[in-house]
Write a structure and sequence with these properties.
- The structure is a single chain.
- By secondary structure, the chain is an alpha/beta fold.
- Helix content is 34%, strand content 16%.
- The protein has twelve helices and 13 strands.
- It has helices at residues 14-22, 66-72, 118-122, 138-145, 162-172, 176-196, 225-231, 239-248, 284-287, 290-293, 303-310, 316-334; strands at residues 41-45, 48-52, 59-61, 79-82, 106-109, 128-130, 150-151, 204-211, 216-220, 236-237, 254-258, 269-273, 297-300.
- Strands 8, 9, 10, 11, 12 and 13 form a six-stranded mixed sheet that branches.
- It starts with 13 loop residues before the first helix and ends with a helix.
- Residues 1-35 have low confidence and may be disordered.
Length: 336
């Protein structure tokens, strides 16, 4: 998946400087009108801080989540990534179809390896780029900032919590109160699921992507949002995952281990992203896991469900919970 890609640096060009000089000129009929909040507003992130001087009118989103959060805030971007993995035929995620307007929003190519082409983004003449989760180097940030103000991720790449993403976006578009309402609403949903499923409480969990071609497992760390949403419902990180996180350092959102070593991260419940038709019995090393033996290892093969659990925000998460909670309950019951 895209999140494991190598992020190359991109050099600035004279053409970008020319576009940047015109980027503050906005179309009076442009979508993305937001209301409320005070400007200018300063948003801090990993590369310093970005000042949004006035109400943004032409917003471009990068990576995952930002356009979903904008939609929930009743703000329409002029550009957002076109998805392939997990998306419907029009390149938009199933849970976000209600917010997508093909006449108002351009879908641009977001490559599986590397970052979106800056010149492509520049043609959309944005006055704000939202990328509070997408990982990229400072050289790319500097180049993109020549086009428009950029709200980048606040700490380590790909590890911004859904709460932080929502807060940053709400501040940048002048809707901090509405953003907090989204946070409160999703928090209430997760707390309600924890109360409704006491079998989750204290059960250890490991979330992994199983690559059968390489014989390796990508283990998602406690700081990864897809893990956080499970722990917010009562699960706890498996000791082996915590140990792996400590050995790898806090700057990684996943760690790769061989199938032969996957027993080191065994948990009460294992949530595995797997290829279509996958069966745990097809991999001898996995059959030795107690979670597999007792049936508390879940194989998720539906790309939309995998994408939904990987895109953690107030729009996508309720959608995916409706689809995975029965399986999580069954796995937790089997692990009792």
């Amino acid at each position: 998946m895209k999140r494991s890609r190598l992020l190359p640096a991109i050099a600035a060009t004279a053409a970008l400087a020319l576009v940047a000089g015109c980027s503050s000129d906005t179309d009076s009929d442009a979508p993305a009108a937001a209301s409320g909040g005070a400007f200018p507003v300063t948003v801090d992130h990993a590369f310093g801080s970005t000042v949004v001087e006035a109400q943004p009118q032409r917003i471009v989103t990068m990576g995952w989540n930002a356009q979903d959060i904008l939609g929930a805030l009743d703000v329409t971007p002029v550009g957002q990534p076109k998805y392939t993995y997990g998306a419907d035929e029009n390149g938009v995620m199933p849970w976000a179809q209600q917010y997508y307007d093909a006449d108002a929003t351009t879908l641009y190519d977001d490559p599986a390896a590397g970052d979106p082409d800056v010149e492509t983004i520049a043609t959309l003449t944005p006055d704000l780029v939202l990328a509070p989760y997408e990982g990229f180097p400072k050289s790319y940030y500097d180049t993109l900032s020549a086009v428009a103000p950029v709200v980048a991720y606040p700490g380590e790449a790909w590890q911004t919590t859904w709460q932080e993403q929502t807060t940053m976006i709400g501040e940048a578009v002048g809707k901090p109160t509405e953003a907090q309402a989204l946070i409160d609403g999703m928090g209430e949903r997760l707390a309600a699921e924890a109360d409704a499923h006491p079998e989750f409480a204290g059960k250890t969990v490991a979330v992994v992507n199983l690559d059968t071609d390489s014989g390796q497992a990508n283990v998602y760390m406690p700081s990864d949002p897809r893990v956080q949403v499970l722990t917010e419902m009562g699960f706890v990180n498996a000791p082996g995952v915590v140990a792996l996180d400590e050995s790898d350092g806090a700057d990684a959102f996943f760690s790769t281990i061989s199938f032969e070593n996957v027993k080191s991260i065994d948990a009460d419940v294992i949530v595995a992203f797997t290829p279509e038709g996958f069966d745990f019995s097809s991999v001898p090393a996995l059959t030795t896991l107690p979670a597999v033996s007792r049936g508390s290892a879940i194989s998720l093969t539906d790309t939309q469900v995998v994408a939904g659990l990987s895109n953690v925000n107030p729009v996508s998460t309720p959608w995916v919970l409706d689809r995975i909670l029965p399986r999580l309950k069954d796995a937790a019951d089997r692990a009792a």
